[in-house]
């Protein structure tokens, strides 16, 4: 993922902002006293360690308990493909598929998207109990002037399908009135507000949860600061757990994705130690690289 990429990450202040004041009350209200559900995954199942196997998804799902399925952003696959993905992965594995770009980018939530969304959900539902939260990422230039389109889509969305939304236009967060209206719309409709932690867009770190799900898309900068940033997330997630957070869905990206397994393994190891989780730590054998942080 190159979104938010900067040339000199050492100049970025990666300090996690304070929580939005409404996050703590939301977590208290939304808590059902259920056991913590933690999922950590990558955006694709091709790993450096899959080079010797043809069954890349099978191997990936033996190392991770979920995947951020970005392939579904580019096209709606035939029904049998979803069934193959479902059957190839072990019990308990979850797919977090991205909504087709026909809805978010090409038609920009206009009146033509509802038939497309229905078609997308018809095949996506074939993932069965392996379907996690679907996420919808809006274009960078999709701003608050499109508010009515957002309202109509949110109200149309079938509530049996968990949904998370990512808004990238900075005006959704710069204007307090606009931001509060958006947060309340998502909260009232049980839609998760995605947090994106990337170097060049610190304005997206609004730290406002709208459901009992922390859906976080973390983008490393291929820099030594990537690991302390993950440490900070461990502390914040632990604090949210103490407030009542029950679902952590954390997806690790890199500008150069080759290193994503390394970051994810580190994050899972620290998460297990801090929060008493028992997640499998993925194997991260990588070819030697010279001068990465020199």
From TrEMBL:
Superkingdom field: Bacteria
Species in which this protein is naturally found: Flagellimonas oceani
Pfam families reported for this sequence: DUF72
InterPro entries: DUF72, UPF0759_sf
Protein name according to UniProt: DUF72 domain-containing protein
